[in-house]
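Extended Data, panel c. Modelled sequence:
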Amino acid sequence: MGTTAVETTRLTKRYRDVTAVDELTLRVAPGEIHALLGLNGAGKTTTIRLLLGMIRPTGGEVRLLGTPVRPGARAVWSRVGYLVESPSAYPELTVAENLAVAARLHGLRERSAVTGAIERLGLGPYAGRRARTLSLGNAQRLGLAKALLHRPDLLILDEPANGLDPAGVAEIRALLHDLAHRDGVTVLLSSHLLAEVARLAGRIGVLDQGRLVWTGATGELTARARPRLHVTTRDLAAAAAALLAAGYRPELAGDELLMAGEQAVTHPEAVAEVLVESGCPPTRLAVEGDDLESCFLRLVAP
């Protein structure tokens, strides 16, 4: 499949005075689950529309599975499945009929493809229902079933857990995990649900105002949520010098010192003893852990 499943180079989209995507350079490896995280308006959906050729970029390039995305390039789409924003369906057709139409468009053996998709997404009880009667969560399942119908090598999903209850979210998480780790499918998804993404994705990219402000392994982001010892004292400079001399590694953060080392976190009383002996007694000493949302918000803070 090559060295990259998704590749963008300085991808840009402007709408008059608004830059929705700003020189985005992204690499997604084959078989990887890669998440794009961002607040509303960060550029996630615009990025996905650019990847799928739904809108033309102002500048830059997109390659999917090694193929440039440009008008007239059709062959790659037989290997790509996608779900963008609200799932679309023929409202007066049933779930099974909607999937049958999609199967014919892909040139698939209709009955086996539809049956497999219905089973995989838990749509059996709703197969005979018209699409317009589905709940938001089941409409989302139908959209995912259509995206998976032709067994693509690459899945591009915009907020795939939208409208699902906690049990449904867990099912979709397990499904995407199996697709990537058992079948080698590459998954690129957008989401604002940081805690859920951290349980699924191997790598994360954080978008803010159309720019990729951070990218890395999920473990690198979760490591930022580790517990740290927060220290305040009347003389931070002297306290930091004393702690350094005692073998600690304090970091100045505003009006406090932060210490992430295991010794400081598990034995804050030893830190207090060093500070008292140096003439800088602490006015506050507390072990606190950041949550993932706080880490994320710091990344996109103005």
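The first helix runs from residue 44 to 51. This feature is highlighted in the accompanying rendering.
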